[in-house]
Amino acid sequence: MEWCQRQVPLLTGCDPITGGTGLLLPVQAGFPPFPRQLHRWHGRVKSACTCQPMAVRSAFAALSDWRMHRVGGRGMLLKGRGGGCPCNSHRLSATMSSAARPDPAETPEEQRFLSTEEAAALERELLEDYRFGRQQLVELCGHASAVAVTKVFPLPTLSRKQRTVLVVCGPEQNGAVGLVCARHLRVFEYEPTIFYPTRSLDLLHRDLTTQCEKMDIPFLSYLPTEVQLINDAYGLVVDAVLGPGVQPGEIGGPCTRALATLKLLSIPLVSLDIPSGWDAETGGGDSEDGLRPDVLVSLAAPKRCAGRFSGRHHFVAGRFVPDDVRRKFALRLPGYTGTDCVAAL
């Protein structure tokens, strides 16, 4: 068949596997590349439809993630996640049938949160098998955490005072993510200040601290015990003190006192990975009378304690996790939109 000389007949047929109906296109030897086929098909349907052109374009924009099945050796059934002509008289049947199997990455009702052991195994997989670097993972998580802040607190909607962000960092990996988050918030034209009471001697922490200092991000030498001073000075606080498996008693008095102050704040609180002090498995411990963040940013994948999170916004920052790893750990999470590095849960 010479594609440039013949129009493709539009037929309907039934998928013998799923029972769904859809649009059939003939398949013959020398069939042209699929993008050209779809383009020509798009042109024919658009010219035959009486809807507004914008509505048609919107309908076809929704026909993504195509799956093709051979039907009776004479054609292919085209399926997508949704779409079709928006008017009732021209509803396209090339959408995914209800019997078709959904993408497991896009079924939030089946979300699965990770145990501490599974989270550690996932990180080892990234570091050892996929050869991610530790600094690379920290950078990805810190950048995504800053993006999550911008989604909940968009800069154009904030007053000058509300743009000020206090980032409280601990000496473990969560603290390193907090330092990266502060740097990116500065790039995004927020006004971060860092409180880092127990500084790590780890080279990565020192490098990230230097980067923040070189970008003129101020560091507090102490955290005021008068809670209202913090409420008046800052628009929100980022909690990057403790990560999964780290208890307040393990990091010393300054961080413990900082957490006691954070519990009393009335301004919005954003916790990275888990709310500091929570048991990563059960959400027990300080979750009973401790930090109550408004926003939680789960790093790579949500931990089990996130099931007890009752704040306004929960994001997962794990777009960098390869599909094979997501399948291996049976993660059921929403898809990421466009080029977003975070997804709302």
TrEMBL record:
<dbReference type="InterPro" id="IPR032976">
    <property type="entry name" value="YJEFN_prot_NAXE-like"/>
</dbReference>
<dbReference type="InterPro" id="IPR036652">
    <property type="entry name" value="YjeF_N_dom_sf"/>
</dbReference>
<dbReference type="InterPro" id="IPR004443">
    <property type="entry name" value="YjeF_N_dom"/>
</dbReference>
<dbReference type="GO" id="GO:0005739">
    <property type="term" value="C:mitochondrion"/>
</dbReference>
<protein>
    <submittedName>
        <fullName>YjeF N-terminal domain-containing protein 3 isoform X2</fullName>
    </submittedName>
</protein>
<feature type="domain" description="YjeF N-terminal">
    <location>
        <begin position="119"/>
        <end position="333"/>
    </location>
</feature>
<dbReference type="GO" id="GO:0052856">
    <property type="term" value="F:NAD(P)HX epimerase activity"/>
</dbReference>
<dbReference type="Pfam" id="PF03853">
    <property type="entry name" value="YjeF_N"/>
</dbReference>
